[in-house]
Each structure stands twice: as structure tokens, then as C-alpha cells.
Amino acid sequence: MEDTKRMFWNEPNSKSYGIPTVSIPRLSYKDPLADKLIANMKPVVLTDTNLVGSAMKWDSHYLQENLGDSPCTVYLSKTHKFKYFDANQTKKCDNDFSPPTEQIVMRFQEFVKRLKSWKEGDKRLYMQEPLNEKILKSLQLVNDILTFNWGWARMQQKQNNWGPLTTNLLMISTQGNVTPAHFDNQHNLFAQIYGYKRFILFPPEDYDKLYPHPVWHPHDRQSQVDFDYPDYTKFPKFHDIKGHEALLGPGDVLYLPLYWWHHVESLLQTHFTISLNFWYKAGPNLCLSDSTLYPLEGYQKMAIMRNVEKMLVEALRDVNEVGPLLRTILEGRYN
Ligand SMILES: CC1(C)c2ccccc2-c2ccc(C[C@@H](CC(=O)O)C(=O)C(=O)O)cc21
Ligand SMILES: [Zn+2]
Description:
single chain; Jelly Rolls; 5-stranded mixed β-sheet; 8 helices; globular; binds zinc ion; Cupin_8; JmjC_dom; FIH-1_dom_II
């Protein structure tokens, strides 16, 4: 794939991280290649799905009108990074874990006020709230959601054997925020509503180059590598990483396959960005059965590795015994 840089990428705000990338294909949803890529769990940007057409009018004023006094979850960070952590797993870290972000709940109108007055140097804000009955009080908003292109989304879900839709996460991020590289165990139709987001994706098999935190760690599923200052001594294979890049603008939808790594940043073209994702559970083909085709795919091997790690933590109880036991299996026998 010719590495076509789009005009935005020379903007000063999108750092290159020195990672070589190829462009993720941008296709019309009518293009048969689009469905082929999705069926093969390959990322693709669809430019004309109209998936969230009725949300294109969702600016801060409109959302304030319709979400005003609803409580919403906002993450705060002193840096530009918003690295997810599972607060329930911090106890296994014998308290040397310091949360990189804090989570607060505030009324949506309060969030909009802080968003508008935000300036460089202030704590960065990242509002994330699942669209559900808790915040959907206005009929106008409910009507907008009802007029999403559910026909197309349901068709994709069915023909690709995805599981049920679990979440529509509404995200509003101050400009320049970065969600560091991580993977999710759900398929994702990621719709960009306002502003621009840059995605750098890596296939599941790049597990060995991205050095995820241990499964019991609060940062489970997140890469240990700091893209701004990679530690090539600790993470030598990161040197060989190659990315798949996409720039998402209003109306674009990125199909982000299950287990694909993604690093996401809100570009500086606008003061904030608005996105909405559609997370679908993995289909039945994640469990190995006698109908499993071999050789296994990267994402299937990833699931196996995670299960082995979880089983060992469970069996050994002490997370510090997992490494030595795996080394005993490996050294002089499998390497
Ligand atoms: C990492 C972060 C900030 C977070 C912290 C604490 C709890 C949840 C989450 C959470 C959930 C979704 C995203 C959106 C998106 C990345 C992006 O658009 O920034 C993404 O990764 C996806 O759609 O899969 C980002 C986050
Ligand atoms: Zn994600």
C-alpha cells in the first residue's frame, strides 16, 4: 500500500513518534472491498456510512441543551496521556501504583463550562459516558440515536458474527489528549463526530513488540512502552514496530477489529473532539473448538496467552511466581 500522507499529517501537532506507518484504506461503505476487510478483521475507514448522521449536529451547545443536568464521568490528567487503569486491580501492585488519571463525576453543563475555559497548562479533560437511559432524558437526543444507520450496523454485526452491542461510548476530549496504545476485547465501529482524531493501529500479533502489562496489573491491556520516550533497553522489539495510520474527521467511521492495538490522539485543529464508539462483544469463534481453522490467527494466540497467564496467577496465587515458573518451562527447553 503506497504510504499516502494526507495533508493534515504535516501539521505540527501530530507527532510522528518515528514509527513507520502505512495508511489504513479509506473506502465507501458500498465498496465490496470494505466488507471483505471487515470480514477478515482488518481495519478500514468508511467515509459515507451516515452511521451517526443525526449526531453531526451535536455541538457543545446542542449537547448542553439536551444533557445539561445529567451527571457524566470525566477523567482528569496532568499530562496529555490518558492511560486507562482498572482501579479494582491496584491492590495486587503492593501499592507502588500511582493512578495517572483521576475520575470525577460532574453535571454535563459543568463539564462544558470547564471545557470551554480550558487552556494549555490546565489539567486535561476527557469526558466518557455510555449513552444509556441514565443520561438520555431528552427525546430529541433519543430521536437522534434512533435515526443512526442501525440497518448498516446490524448488517455488519450479523454478517461478521459479532456478539451483542454492549456500549455506545460518547467521548469529548480536549485537544491534544492521547489515549496510549492498548487493545480491547470487543469489535469497535468508531464514529468521529467533531474535530479530528489520529489513530495508529498495530495487529494483535505485535503483542511481542508492544510489551503489554501483566494481565493482573491495573494497566492490563495497555502497552508498557511510552511512545514519547521508548525504553529500547527494556523493550528492544519495539524498535521493529510498524503501524497502520488513519486520520478520522467528522462523519468518518473506523472499523477497529477485536484485539487490534490502537494509539489515539485528538488533533489541535479544534479546541475539543467528539466521538462515539459502538463496542460489540466478540462472536463465538473466539473459543477454540473442533471447527477452529489452523494455523491460528494472531488474536486467537493472544487470547491463549492471556488465558495461560490468568490460569497461572490463579494457580500460584503469588504474581511474583509467574515469571520464574514460565522461565523454568522455557529455558533450555523451548528456546
Ligand atoms: C483509555 C480511555 C481514556 C479510558 C480511561 C478509563 C476508562 C475508559 C477509557 C476509555 C474508553 C474508550 C476510549 C476511546 C477510544 C480512544 C480514544 O478515542 O481516545 C478507544 O480506545 C476505543 O474506542 O476503544 C478511551 C478510553
Ligand atoms: Zn480502545
